[in-house]
């Protein structure tokens, strides 16, 4: 198993598949999952000649279950540690949900200054800000996130089962086709990680205002979002993000859920490939 040790001595697990001289695509997973959530996309791109990389965020998956550092600054710095360790250049960075926030912070603070990133993709991503505030009245009330914190603290296993069985993939919608294996895989990934990291990570993905990150990004950025996203409502995220990006393109999927990378992988993969090749 491959690991890199960060500057604050945290072991970060990563996958690195494909030719070492091929263009790299690096994938950043959502809360509370792991790099395994990208397996479908990684197989799709490695079969087309790309080098694909994905890591487990600190406290998630197979990375070290440390107590501290569960915030966007550390998430982005950890990703940069993987990039530097592998010598990735001209990379495309793709982030889902919380991973989209990680990508935005990474590109703005590390990838562009180091000239290691050429494009970015934000999929069902949390930026610019999920929490309702005076300056962000369209956001979600703090009680929503307090409910997630209570669920993690009281019965994390049941919370994860409920989220995966319901709103994450839209399986709670009338007539939805339900995939039990997808639910079980989401639960498996979540339970591999640290309850402390998951608890602290709720603040990171809900309260981090990334407006300045988005404004700083100059590389071409594709924003993908389903208009039936029950986890990160499109009005709070993608519709605002694309207005802040200097070189952003928005693609909206009618009726698609937050977890559309799994439920509609064929369509999303094709659109990702078209963007990478453009």
UniProtKB/TrEMBL annotation:
The keyword Metal-binding does not apply. The keyword Signal does not apply. GO terms for molecular function: hydrolase activity. Keywords: Hydrolase. SUPFAM superfamilies: alpha/beta-Hydrolases. It holds the Pfam family Abhydrolase_1. Residues 24-263 form the AB hydrolase-1 domain. It comes from the Bacteria. Belongs to the AB hydrolase superfamily. Bacterial non-heme haloperoxidase / perhydrolase family. This is Alpha/beta fold hydrolase. It comes from Teichococcus wenyumeiae.
């Amino acid at each position: 198993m491959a690991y890199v040790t960060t500057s604050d001595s945290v072991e970060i697990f990563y996958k690195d598949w494909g030719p070492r001289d091929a263009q790299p695509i690096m994938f950043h997973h959502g809360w509370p999952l792991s790099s395994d959530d990208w397996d479908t996309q990684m197989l799709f791109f490695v079969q087309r000649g790309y080098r694909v990389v994905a890591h487990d965020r600190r406290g998630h998956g197979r990375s070290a279950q440390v107590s501290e550092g569960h915030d966007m600054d550390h998430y982005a710095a950890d990703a940069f540690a993987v990039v530097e360790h592998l010598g990735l250049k001209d990379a495309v960075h793709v982030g889902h949900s919380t991973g989209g926030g990680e990508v935005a912070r990474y590109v703005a603070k590390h990838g562009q200054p180091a000239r290691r990133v050429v494009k970015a993709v934000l999929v069902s991503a949390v930026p610019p800000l999920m929490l309702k505030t005076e300056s962000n009245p369209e956001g979600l009330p703090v009680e929503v996130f307090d409910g997630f914190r209570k669920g993690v603290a009281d019965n994390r296993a049941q919370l994860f089962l409920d989220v995966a069985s319901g709103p994450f993939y839209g399986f709670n919608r009338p007539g939805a086709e339900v995939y039990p294996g997808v639910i079980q895989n989401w639960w498996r990934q979540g339970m591999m990680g640290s309850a402390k990291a998951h608890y602290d990570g709720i603040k990171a993905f809900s309260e981090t205002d990334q407006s300045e990150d988005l404004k700083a990004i100059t590389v071409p950025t594709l924003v993908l979002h389903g208009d039936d996203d029950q986890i990160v409502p499109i009005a709070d995220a993608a519709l605002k993000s694309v207005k802040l990006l200097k070189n952003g393109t928005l693609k909206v999927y009618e009726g698609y859920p937050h977890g559309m990378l799994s439920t509609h992988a064929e369509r999303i993969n094709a659109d990702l490939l078209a963007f990478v090749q453009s």
